[in-house]
Design a protein that fits this description.
The chain is of the alpha+beta class. It folds into 2 domains: about 100 residues, no CATH class; about 70 residues, no CATH class. It is built from 10 helices and 4 strands. A 4-stranded antiparallel sheet has the order 2-1-3-4. α4 crosses α6 and α6 runs parallel beside α8. The radius of gyration is 32 Å and the shape is elongated.
Length: about 230
């Protein structure tokens, strides 16, 4: 709230109300995420606070799937129109600027784009793909499309290791207590919704009771010392 208030013309109370309303409506949830430290703290495990936002209002079931790392795709986000020219197509079409001998036709780019796209799916970037296709070219290049197809196939990097989804935990919008997403309907815990009374805890002893008990213990210890002296 303090950070937002520094950048927006609203007070912390107004911002807190707005965020709580967003959480109740479904586009926002707050919680914690388990991460592994880096640098000097490499290998250390810690929880960091997170605020997750989606432009589409989501129900409790969707947020429960999100915390498990299993986010379903749905309309309209899951049905976005694919771009006419893919990332791979654009890279192949521009190869001739770097290496004129590798100039390709539109039909060649369209045919080779799925092979180049697989490089990107495996974590490669434009520079690494371009280097693999243009380094050490023979002179002359008789069939650019055939050479690029062979390199895209033979130099294809290995599939990346499976990445475990991050461990996430949502928090109640009112009291901040962490809990399972299924127990936080609308982002609020059952206690704050008034569904059940908070668990009663035994009250700590009052100060006079503590002092009286300490006096009893000191008196008993003095009596024991007196008995040992008489013996």
């Amino acid at each position: 709230m303090k950070t937002l208030a520094m950048h927006l013309p609203y007070g912390q109370c107004d911002l807190r109300t707005a965020l709580n309303n967003l959480q109740q409506a479904g586009p926002l949830r707050r919680g914690r995420e388990h991460v592994t430290g880096t640098g000097a703290a490499s290998g250390s495990q810690l929880w960091i606070t997170r605020t997750w936002f989606t432009r589409t209002a989501r129900g409790d079931d969707w947020w429960a799937a999100f915390t498990r790392g299993d986010v379903p795709t749905d309309s309209p986000e899951g049905q976005r129109r694919q771009p006419t020219r893919s990332r791979a197509f654009i890279l192949l079409a521009a190869l001739g600027r770097t290496a004129p001998a590798l100039s390709l036709s539109q039909a060649d780019c369209a045919a080779l784009a799925p092979l180049a796209g697989e490089w990107f799916e495996r974590g490669a970037n434009e520079e690494s793909v371009r280097h693999a296709l243009t380094a050490g070219l023979p002179t002359p290049v008789h069939h650019p499309a055939a050479l690029i197809r062979r390199r895209l196939t033979s130099k294809l990097p290995p599939e990346p290791a499976a990445v475990r989804p991050p461990l996430r935990m949502l928090e109640c919008a009112k009291c901040g207590v962490p809990g399972r997403a299924e127990a936080l309907a609308g982002g609020v815990c059952g206690e704050c919704r008034g569904e059940y009374a908070p668990a009663h805890r035994d009250a700590p002893p009052l100060a006079p009771t503590i002092h009286a008990r300490a006096a009893e213990i000191r008196a008993a210890m003095a009596h024991k010392r007196q008995e040992r002296t008489l013996v």
